[in-house]
Design goal:
With 457 residues, the protein is an all-alpha fold. 60% of the residues lie in helices and 0% in strands. It has one domain. The N terminus is likely disordered.
């Protein structure tokens, strides 16, 4: 194996991955284009409020207050920021209580610290706008790295990869979370970085990006474990195994010392009676949650396909790319976490939140699937319709008619209206006929393409 990290004509490919040669000049231009599209699309959403009356809302103020505390006090304790009502200029008059008052009067937000650490200096220098601008830059970096990984690691033709990554970056949910102050986009960046590093000698860089995932949020542990397993399987490295063990132990010790539990939720006001594991629900109905296996894709309001129909192509792409374990295993880990561990699919957030961490991997699978002209035409048509919907959303938000976490289903986009009309609404009792119909269609698509994959093999 050989070649440079961002240059040269040689692809560093893992086992079972096709190899192609792409000139560096064309690749750099494609990366620049995709990155600019991602940054611009995300930045357009900064002016759209999170809720009516607040530029940031829900968990966003917690991340920003912690970033502010780190910048000013070098501390995770946000009690003085809360007492000073520092959130009011950008978070609205009232802030939902999330923190428990600990011994000594400290209040530590029940969110992992890596994102506030990244945003501490921008928050100190330019406030919430600077913090969101940095998020948009990370969205650009995610697009650049996804494109590079698709081309260099999975031999996706450059033009297809550039168009596909740009379309995904300019539509929901990636464009929305490209400026929302949540760890979703940084986590996706870490996940793609880990896949890009698989099969290279840079095992400590791989270990670093995988280890970053839990420090962004404990909910990313399953994805981190899947990626760690892939790295250990590829390298058979005892040193890497020891490194992951040390990082895991450090994570647990730090959380016991600072948050008082095994996770950050131990310091949360909501979990003082139930315990920190109540974050997954007090009496989870796993059979009911299994509906999310399809609902996360096709729910009328909170499914991916409602806002970007091209995500439907993931089903046949997954079947034909089932042997691409480096993509499929972490994708499955993320999807199953969103299905069974998340307390709800219909939360007070923009749709697709729990899946953003693995969506770039899903995108690469789809790009690998586009091996026929008709597939590329269909993908382009579906993808551009999603871009149109995002443009409608941004315009409606900037005009004050909707926000990112409330009223967004009132968007006037004819594409969304048409697509949503044939999708099930899992919040209403009458969703079963549409659910069963869509489940049958998705299973049929998967089965047909899975058989094709066996024929090709």
């Amino acid at each position: 194996m050989g070649g440079s990290w961002f240059g040269g004509d040689v692809v560093i490919a893992g086992p079972g991955v096709a190899v192609a040669r792409v000139g560096s000049g064309g690749l750099y231009r494609g990366m620049a284009l995709a990155g600019v599209v991602a940054v611009v699309a995300a930045a357009l959403g900064i002016g759209v409020p999170s809720t009516f009356g607040a530029h940031v809302a829900v968990d966003e103020p917690q991340y920003l207050l912690t970033a502010l505390s780190l910048a000013e006090d070098r501390s995770l304790d946000i009690s003085d920021e809360l007492a000073g009502r520092r959130w009011v200029p950008w978070g609205g008059a009232e802030l939902p209580v999330q923190t428990e008052v600990l011994d000594g009067g400290a209040q530590i937000s029940p969110h992992d610290p890596l994102l506030p650490i990244v945003l501490a200096i921008p928050m100190r220098l330019g406030g919430w706008v600077a913090a969101k601008a940095v998020m948009a830059l990370m969205a650009g970096a995610l697009a650049v790295l996804t494109l590079w990984t698709a081309v260099r690691r999975f031999a996706v033709p450059l033009k297809i990869a550039t168009a596909g990554v740009a379309i995904a970056a300019a539509s929901a949910p990636l464009a929305v979370y490209g400026q929302q102050v949540y760890p979703e986009v940084p986590a996706a960046l870490a996940a793609v970085g880990a896949v890009a590093l698989l099969g290279t000698p840079r095992i400590w860089a791989f270990a670093a990006v995988v280890s970053a995932l839990p420090w962004l949020s404990v909910k990313y542990v399953p994805v981190a474990l899947a990626l760690a397993a892939l790295g250990l399987w590829r390298t058979r490295s005892k040193a890497l195994l020891a490194g992951f063990a040390v990082m895991g132990a450090l994570y647990l010790v730090v959380h016991r010392v600072i948050w008082g539990g095994w996770t950050v939720y131990a310091s949360g006001d909501h979990f003082q009676n139930s315990g920190e594991w109540g974050v997954m629900g007090f009496a989870p109905d796993l059979a009911g949650r299994a509906l999310r296996l399809t609902g996360l894709l096709v729910d009328q309001g909170y499914g991916l396909a409602a806002w970007q129909p091209a995500w439907l192509l993931l089903v046949p792409a997954l079947a034909l790319g089932i042997r691409r374990v480096s993509l499929v295993l972490p994708l499955a880990a993320g999807w199953l976490t969103a299905t069974f561990a998340a307390v709800t699919m219909h939360g007070f957030w923009w749709p697709g939140r729990q899946l953003v961490v693995v969506l770039p991997l899903a995108l690469i699978l789809i790009l690998c699937w586009l091996d026929r002209t008709w597939k590329r035409v269909a993908a382009a048509a579906l993808g551009l319709s999603g871009v149109l919907t995002y443009a409608w959303l941004a315009a409606g938000g900037l005009a004050g008619r909707l926000t990112w976490v409330s009223g967004f289903q009132e968007v006037a986009s004819p594409v969304y209206r048409a697509v949503a009309s044939v999708l099930p609404d899992y919040r209403r009792p009458g969703f079963w006929p549409a659910h069963l119909a869509w489940a049958a269609v998705l299973v049929l698509l998967f089965t047909i393409n899975l058989r094709k994959s066996h024929v090709r093999a």
